[in-house]
Amino acid sequence: MSVELKYPVITIGREYGAGGRTIAAALSEKLGIPYYDKDFVVKTAKESGYSEDEIDKEGEQMNHMNEFMNSLLNNSAAYTSSFDAIYNAQKNVIMDLAKSPCIIVGRCADYILRKAGVEAFNIFLFADLDKKVARAAELPENKDIHDIKKAVLKRDELRNTYYKHYTGEDMRYYKQYDICLDTGVIGIDKCVDILVNVLTK
After folding, report:
1. Whether pTM exceeds 0.85
2. DSSP code of residue 33
3. CB 12 within 8 A of CB 60
4. All domains in the chain, ordered by first residue
5. What is the pLDDT of residues 81-110, one digit of tens each?
6. Cα–Cα distance between 101 and 21 in angstroms, integer?
7. Do the strands 121-126 and 179-182 form a parallel or antiparallel pair, or are they unpaired?
8. Contacting residues for 10 by C-beta, under 8 A, at least 6 apart
C-alpha cells in the first residue's frame, strides 16, 4: 500500500497492556514503514556492548531504588551506570532511525526527538486497568505469571519511573503528545483507523 505521510517519524508511548506493539505493527503494515520495538533491543546491543537480555531488562524499566542508586553513584565523575549507558545507546539508535520514516515504540523516543528538534508525531496509548490486565493475560510472555494485575501495575510503574528519571516528565502527561487514545474504550482496530487517517494526506 502506497500512502503519503504527513509525519514520517512516529513515536508510540504506551501503558503496559494497552496494545502498543499491536498498533505499531498494524500501522507499519498500513503505512508501509518499519516499526521498532523488540528488534530495537538488537540495535541497542550493537551500539552499547550490553547483552540483549540486559537491555531488555534495563532498557525501559527502573524502580525507585535503582533510580536512587543511579543518581547517588553518578555523583562520581568516573562512574556510568548500565542504565545510563543503555539510555545513551538507545538515544543514538533513535536518532539514527529517525533519519528515515519509521515508528518507534517507547524508549523515551518522543522526548529525545523533541529535544533534538526532530519533528515527529507522538502518540500515547492507555486503557483502564481491567482492560490492560485482560490483554496482558493473553500475551505469551505472561503465561507463567499468576498475578497479572500486579505485574501490569509493576510494569507501568517501572516504565514511568524510567521515563521520569531521564526526561523529568510524567510519561502519562497528555500535553507532551499529539494524540492520546484509550484503546480499551475505542478498540485496537478503530485506534489504527483513526491514526492512519491522522497520519496520511
Report:
1. yes
2. -
3. no
4. 9-199 (3.40.50.300)
5. 678 888 898 999 999 999 999 999 999 999
6. 17
7. parallel
8. 27, 33, 102, 103, 104, 120, 121, 122, 123, 199
